[in-house]
Every structure is written in C-alpha cells, then in structure tokens.
Amino acid sequence: MRELLLSNPQIAPLKKGEPVWEMAFLYPMQGDWMEREYLALENGRFLVEFDNGHLEFGAMPTREHQRIVLFLYRMLWQFLSANGIGGELFATPLPVKLWEKKYREPDIVYLSAKRPEGADLVMEVVSGTVSDRYRDLIEKREEYAKAGIPEYWIVDPEMKRVTVLTLAGDEYAAHGEFSEGEEAESALLVGFRVGVTAVFAAAALE
User: Fold this and answer.
1) Where are the domains of the chain?
2) What's the rounded Cα separation, in Å, for the pair 182 and 161?
C-alpha cells in the first residue's frame, strides 16, 4: 500500500479537513525508528516516548495537570537552592534514556551532579485515562526500577494520593503513601517534603 500511494499520489485524493496522510510516509514505519530520528522529532501536540523502534503517543496534559507539575517543580527547586544541592532539575518535555532504545519523558526529572544522564528522581502526575493510569502506575514503575532510578514519585489527582517509591534491589518498595493532610517526603533528598493537600489544591488555581 505504501508503494502504491507513493507511485500514484492521485489514487486517493484528499478531501478538505482530512489529515495529510502522505506526510506519514516522510517518517519511518513503527518498529523502524532510530534513536536519532526520535530525538530530532519536533512535536508540540503530543507527549512522544520511544520504545525499541516504536513511538508511543500520549495526550497533551491539561492545565490542571500542568499546575500540579509546576507547583512540585517550584517546591523542589526551592529546596535544592536553599540547601545548596547541586545537579539539574527539569520539567517535561525532556527525553530520559532508560536503556538502549528506551526513552521516557517524566513530568519532573532531577539529576544529581554525579549523573551525566538518566535520573536520580522522577515524578509523574497521573492523567485520567485508563491507559495513562496503567502506564504511570504499572509500566513506568517497572521501567524506572529497571533503569536504576533511585526514587519515583507517583502523584495521583484522582485518588488524592502521593506515593513515594525507593529502589530496593531491582524493584521499588513504598517509602510511603501520603494522603491529604499529610506531607509526602523524599528518602533520597532528606528534608524535602510537600503537603499533599497543597499539591492538589494547586490544580484549581486560576
């Protein structure tokens, strides 16, 4: 079909309002993507992650999601600055290499000064769809542990809960599950804590 369309561009003329399907043939097929092609991809409409030659697409985050991300980013940045802790802090989009041919884009990424790539701490704010929840709660928990990331925060607006996971061997163990009225705290960055009520209240700011 690909060869047929390329050799006969008028075989199925596009109608106004349809996607420009031929544009897809300017890119590799699923399974054939190279890391350099993924990293060169400019995209502002979807969250795009890379898995062994395949691209995975997530919906753009909501304003509520982004408010929570920015609140957590500010809290963590203030803690690092106030305590003179080096390293780098990023918010998505930033591809993080987990292993060869595997990239994810955590909502928040902290890298210590000792780590040239990867991450020491990642945070994900869980989106509302079933597939997004499965990815953040199950898949990424396994993948971040496999990648050796010491700490993973799962921030779940639906459950109003923050789960802090720490690496124990090749799996994560729960450092704590924190609900509204409690303070979620880091095991890696001793002294960093944030009120769970304030985290989810940030989503409603206008």
Assistant:
1) 2-58, 63-204
2) 10
